[in-house]
Amino acid sequence: MGLGTSGGGSNDAGHLLADARLAMQVSALVGGPLPARDVLAMATVGSADGLGRTDLGRLTEGSRADICVWDVSGVADAGVADPVDGLLWANPGRRPRHVIVGGRVVVRDYALVTADEHEVVAAVRARTGR
Q: Which residues is 107 bridged to in the sheet?
């Protein structure tokens, strides 16, 4: 089973971790609760397999090397026994500390390194008229 987000149709931020949290919350209403690690597997391997993409959703030789790293050592995670539970339950809207896409670092220490963030924001505002 896969789990994904299309943006505003599923949540305003298009944030997959928030959708994963919602899946865990809703699962308890229709059956047994889903563990965070199972839901994370749905969002990674499950979704990739559903698309027929064995090069995505896993960290193995030959994979695309798309990786997000979140800091789970802060106050929001204090007292959380399992860091994956904390990632999905405690603060699913957090920004990733590092992002690697296709083996290329695009975010390092919360900052976009492949473009100037101010220029990106200005370009989006110019295109949307805001």
A: 99, 112
pLDDT 10s digits, 92-114: 778 899 999 988 999 999 999 99
Distance CA 21, CA 19 (A): 5
Phi first, then psi: what are they for 67, rounded to 5°?
A: -135, 135
49-84 pLDDT, tens digit per residue, is: 999 998 999 988 888 888 999 998 888 888 888 998
CB 63 within 8 A of CB 55: yes
Say how many residues make up the chain. Answer: 130
Q: Which fold has domain 16-128?
A: Urease, subunit C; domain 1 (2.30.40)
Q: Where do the domains of the chain lie?
A: 16-128
Give CA–CA dist 97/86, Å, rounded.
15
Q: Is the pLDDT of residue 11 over 90?
A: no
Task: Record the pTM.
Answer: 0.79
Q: Residues 93, 18, 67, CA angle at the centre, nearest 5°?
A: 75
Q: Write out 22-35 in H/E/C secondary structure.
A: HHHHHHHHHCCCCC
